[in-house]
User: Fold these one by one.
Assistant:
Number 1:
Amino acid sequence: MGLKTLNDIFLQVADSFRPRLLLQHQALGWLPVSSAEFYRDVVGVARGLQELGIVRGDRVAILSENRVEWAVTDFAILALGAVTVPIYSTLTPDQTAFILRDAGARVVAVSTREQLDKVLLVLPHTPVEHVLVMDNIETAHATHLQRLTLHGPSSRDAAFDALARSAQPSDLATIIYTSGTTGPSKGAMLTHGNMASNVDYSMRDLPMRSADLSLSYLPLSHVTARHVDFSLLYHGVTIAYCPFIENLVRALVELKPTIFVAVPRVYEKIRMQAMHKATKFPAKEIFHWALAVGRRNRTQILAGRRPRSLAWKLADRLVYSKIREGMGGKIVLYLSGGAPLGRELVEWYADAGIAIHEGYGLTETSPVIAVNTPHAYKLGAVGKPLENLEVSIAADGEVLVRGPSVFRGYWNRPEESFAAFVDGWFKTGDIGNLDADGFLSITDRKKDLIKTSGGKFIAPQPIENTLKLNPLIGSSAILGEKRKFPAVLISPHFPMLEDWARANHIVFTSREELIAHPKVQSLYEGIVGDLNTNLARFEKLKRVILVPEEFSPGHGTLTPTLKLRRKGIEERYRRQIDAMYEHADLSTVSST
């Protein structure tokens, strides 16, 4: 019959009698949480919410980093028939207050003193009646979640199980607020049936075993991370929670996971670190030789086969294995989602002996629409659409979707909900195509397309994906909307740039001084000039702006899931961008 509601996952977990369901990092190391302990904690929190007056349909927010209590609170809310409203822990007090007000949240569960203080600051301006806190801190303003979990039952609670089973596929399960890359955040309404149907189909053809372990570090406030965790629990995989991404490398080495899920930005950083380590002779020559060997075996890697040639085995021992060891050394399944990965990045990893299985979807589709699997993989595509979905391409190239995982609409926004559909098809906002073999490819976001003042449309993502493969480039953003020519703003990969500067006898005392040096300016103009030789005339980038910092969610230049926030980039660097266009002539960056 398959999954009908998300509560089916919880009840299946409770029936599994697993001694190591989840792992939570504590001062003394990684603490296992059994399925019996998880069940006890979920029921305890649910009963506590009932005592606070929470009933079916009420909204309860979670403001927390990834941790066991996140999953406990989520399943407790869902079991009651209430609605989970995730909030990114990196949001400002005002942004947090907006979501609490818009969703009409009656209760909010927070993780730490920092998150509690944030909520208390805006509490009078929200409908929140009660606050739960996960950390054991002294406060008179919140109820300790641990007190609720300890009051959970020592054995199965038949009445509670019946309540969880009473949920219907049509019941609203969660309101997930989009990260706002192009405008104000909107709450996507996803039902139990939306998310359960997607969990049921999205990972059917991916190899997973009960002995597998995966790290949960991408924010659970994002639909991709939450969907993955639901899916892994459903398939019996152990999940270890890593609250902060800066601890990811240590957690990978300590736990040696077998499944790795990342957004493209994480894969980009791993690649940059590997290339940075191989900058000196003889490592550089060995590294490039190994990638050349891998390139000749790329097809086998993407097909899931291990090459048998002596050259590949030597390259694997000298280079590929070192890259894998940086991620723990035991990963057998690499997944990517949340944003386009880029063909060149997929190729680089394949050349290093790693096949990344890219998926594609949106918050509004719960989220997976298509995914590459070991049985159906095509380079440059995001896979075949799931069996229970229909995908069509509109006349203007927009990808349209319909099926059981497509959302109900936007919370409190009937007009925007109506505008999101055409003849029953959800408009993804992505430009793509379906090939003769049924594989879906995505070329760009419709709203991201740049229209110059001359009326030419430029797709920025393919250009940015090519640029960021250069080890000297950390991130880049194509400019040109309503401007007379396209340009590029680049945040350098500073470890590589600083090494290059020292090798070229450039003296600098700050990043600002470094990027202003004529030789550095010339270096990046040369990189862009090389790229221009492969671009159409109207796409050629005529100017380069270097900035002395990395893009980040804290600066508003990346979303919490590390995608470019173009509006934020334009706002943060408005002065440099305006000055560049004001004083520039129309000569193009010269090709080298």
Number 2:
Amino acid sequence: MLLYSNFCRETLDQTGIPTQFSLKYPENFNFGYDVVDVLGQENPDGLAVMWCNTAGEEKRLTYRDIMELSNRAANAFAAQGIRKGDRVLVILKRNWEYWYVAPALHKLGAVMIPATHLLTVEDLVYRIGKGEITAAVATPEGDTVHDLLLAQQRCPELHTIFVPRKSIEGCIQLEKAMEAASPVLERVETKVTDPMMIYFTSGTTGYPKAVTHNHTYPLSHIITARYWHGVVEGGLHLTVAETGWAKASWGKLYGQWLCGSGVMVYDFDVFSPGKLLRVMEKYRVTTFCAPPTVYRYFVKRGMDRYDLSALQHLSTAGESLSAPIFRQVEQQTGLHLMEGFGQTETALILANFQGRVSKPGSMGKPSPMYQVQLQKEDGSFAGVNEPGEVVVIPPEGGMKYGIFTGYCQDDTLYQAVWRDGVYHTGDTATVDEDGYYWYIGRVDDLIKTKGFRVGPFEVENVLMEHPAVLECAVIGVPDQDRGQAIKAVVSLAAGYEPSPELAKEIREFCNHHMASYKWIQILEFNNEMPKTISGKIRRTQLRQK
């Protein structure tokens, strides 16, 4: 029996997908003790992490390794004054140290705040203040430590910086501190309702929000791993994500270990589809998840040129998946791409679950952990094929599993997204007669043109079908006759050059495949899209031009 079954109640249908699902746990549940240490004792030689990098180095970590390393790290952190409730910034890229640092902080009851290495000094100063951060664990690579030390001069509350593998003045060398620490850790009592982690959103429309999750968060990803990622016991799962983003929690740690799968980590800075495919081939990766952009590069490279026979399941999320990419991945691997939907604030909300036939382009059906509805502007619920905002209705008197517990220093915003007793995602969709949800766009991004409401996503989906289009964003711009005109901003694929003729060709191609109210009136080429540090296109910035 897999460890995850100790923490949930589920009823499965004939395809093996849960129709009912709820969590169960002791009031002092802590992933570090109740999962990592249990695995370390019951499956000590089981593969927890298989790590490699672009230099050809590799490291194999068992559950016993993770248990002992996390105990030493926790004792080392405690020796420097880190206590339950303290907030610790963790910037470790895809470095292997992340996989013991995270459970070490959980064991102490410290609040881990993962962040990307792409942050500037100003970004760090903002996060230290907003998150009330007092300590950090930072990669020795690049400028991260240098920038942290500069931020520390402006934020003296950041009193301690740990750095692995390198001695840097003003910082504590992590391995040396761990060598002096005991591999045995006395349990620190925490409550499941205590804050465990804070993620900063990518901030597409303003300053990043600081999203707080409690200790139920790892358990909410049982469904993510088992029924969407399709991980298998003794398998090896690879999610393409840096540890600074919430997608790492979805696919690189919690649910995977709970469901008996090891985690494959490829440590790289510059994405190379060929190198990533060779890693999947060499280490016999069994399940894989990545944004559609990665699959676009994969099919151009040719997935069928590699021995991916160990692959059993593919999933994707994060952006538009065009039908041609779905078809080409299936042709080259024999596997369906299974889309899903969730947010930094939540666990998996909607998905095409393993065992069901997926609909290309659909976000799938609601997770059995949530009751999901589409709400119209007047507060009523939308019917079949009617647009509405995706909202989550918590069970009466029940826990809001996997849904964040607050925004740091912004209770007003938290109350706004939880108005009328439901969680407002800010994303709009339609639902078809089979119960599958189809993404339209963010509420703020909806285009109102000639009395119609158009989601950028549905136009962008058609744009991505044209071979000249590498990336695109669709926005509404003021128009005297229409209210808003539909404008497309396009970044071209290699081998294409901007020209009026190409702009006309792309517009005509798209307009031929769309209802007339969705037609593109303006098309503009842009070599580089404005993006957040997580890679999301900033439509707000495009609208300001």
